Amino acid sequence: MAYLKGGGNRQNIWEEGQKRMETQMLRAAIDELNKKGYLQVCDVEVEPKFELGAVLKYFKNEVPILFNKIKGSKMSVAGALFGNREIYYEMLGMKHEERIFRMMDAIANPKATKLLTKGPVMENIITRNIDIPRMFPIPTFHEKDSSSFITSGIVVLKDPETGKRHISVRRLQVNGGNEVSILVASSLANKQFFQMEEQNKPLEVAIILGYDYSLLLASQISSEVYGADKYEVDSALRGEALELVKCHSVDLEVPAYGEIVLEGIMPPNRRKEEGPFGELMGYYGGAAPHPVVEVKTVMHRNNPIFQTAFPCREEHLSNGLIREIELYTAVKNLADVQDVNVTVSGGCRLHAFVSICKKQEGAGKSAILGALASSKDIKHVVVVDDDVDIFDPDDIEWAIATRMQASKDLTIISGALGSGLEPSHSLKGVTDKVGIDATKPIGELGKSFERAVIPGYEDIDISKYFPQYKNIQKDGNAI
Ligand SMILES: Cc1cc2nc3c(=O)[nH]c(=O)nc-3n(C[C@H](O)[C@H](O)[C@H](O)COP(=O)(O)O)c2cc1C
């Protein structure tokens, strides 16, 4: 573990009788990424303002990076861990073809969590003189951002009525001292705060930094749609009980092997201007008053690693993976769906590519209906046959170029409910939707659409012919 400052001891010494390696949360994930050769370690000093984000963006947030020297801080920062699909699958031990069913199974069959009496995250407990910008190397990403932002915190709270646990990622604007502003877009989590506010009571929250692939994915499930305990979905997904500990000053539970936990309250009737902030689709979201969190306690491991997420499309892959379940299910009701892609370039919510095995005329149009109905956020969908690779934009373009006639294959629905997270529509959230049916006709007419094939092409080993090109992929890029 030489890449981690202080050695990063991962031996579990927290539960009686247990002597095994840590398997949960960020430190275990970083170790695994390093073993698999995916981790880049930066030992050159980096400014948290702009420079760190620029390095992450350079690699499109697809290359996990551990920054060991951050100007003005002794802490390392990990970023871009969750932006690459293939790495995501591998870290969860699942194949692309089985991802949707594995996630569905975890949501349908959640497993119990395990409460430990203590855990590494409790190694340091700080209750006084909490000054968040002084304690943590929090990046500022874009020129006009109002402040530095904690962009990857998983916020934990309990429903005041039912006592059910709720977790989700929310961005936090650093206001100075022990205060951050919190942006909550989903109505359910807002409801919990509003309920407490009506009674003039604070809502307790904890913010987790330093989690792993499984917990992030579980956090992205919509509570409104599934009503599941996301910690329990995580246990099912990771194949072992998620190990939790109780917080120090609030009645909440957090992962025992997390790096940092901020505990506090959202006080009633307090709002602070939040934003502008360079957002999901690469534009600035405007400033508006939002609730705040007063941090009362900070718990952290020894030599904690601060976790960040570049506030842009790639980090939202986890959100897109969950949306693919909904898309797949919605289309399955209408057509023989083969695979779905909620694309990264479409912000993991605005664009969908769907492949079907077309058995009847009209199936392409029906698939469009299902896809657009699967989520209000999907704005454009392209439906293709199963001989098209929906993860290859060139193949999608080829299908549109050769299998689509606009007068019959283009569907436009104007003025539907959509996402407010892109600026092209004048009435925020009311948007036009487009479906493109780029499937070929079936029967006799379909015969002229047969793709020309070179037998053996898929298995060709190019290094046999050009040993010097051992690491060159089919598309000409280096591996
Ligand atoms: C990196 C990242 C940042 C996010 N930032 C926010 C945010 O600032 N506010 C928000 O409401 N949702 C944000 N989300 C999306 C929510 O975490 C996500 O929609 C979550 O599933 C909502 O769960 P819920 O429906 O149970 O509330 C973010 C997601 C990711 C992956």
UniProtKB/TrEMBL annotation:
UniProt domain 3-octaprenyl-4-hydroxybenzoate carboxy-lyase-like Rift-related: residue ranges: 118-313
Domain of life: Bacteria
Domain 3-octaprenyl-4-hydroxybenzoate carboxy-lyase-like N-terminal: 30-106
Coiled-coil stretches noted in the UniProt entry, renumbered to this chain: none
Entries under Pfam families matching the protein: UbiD, UbiD_C, UbiD_N
InterPro entries from the UniProt entry: UbiD (IPR002830), UbiD-like_C (IPR049381), UbiD-like_N (IPR049383), UbiD_Rift_dom (IPR048304)
Cellular component GO terms held in the UniProt record: cytoplasm
Residues in 3-octaprenyl-4-hydroxybenzoate carboxy-lyase-like C-terminal domain copies: 319-438
A molecular-function term among this protein's GO annotations: carboxy-lyase activity
Family assignment from sequence similarity: Belongs to the UbiD family.
PANTHER family, A to Z: 3-OCTAPRENYL-4-HYDROXYBENZOATE CARBOXY-LYASE-RELATED (PTHR30108), 4-HYDROXYBENZOATE DECARBOXYLASE (PTHR30108:SF21)
Annotated NCBIfam families: UbiD family decarboxylase (TIGR00148)
The protein's name: 2,5-furandicarboxylate decarboxylase 1
Record organism: Natronincola peptidivorans
Organism placement in taxonomy: Bacteria, Bacillati, Bacillota, Clostridia, Peptostreptococcales
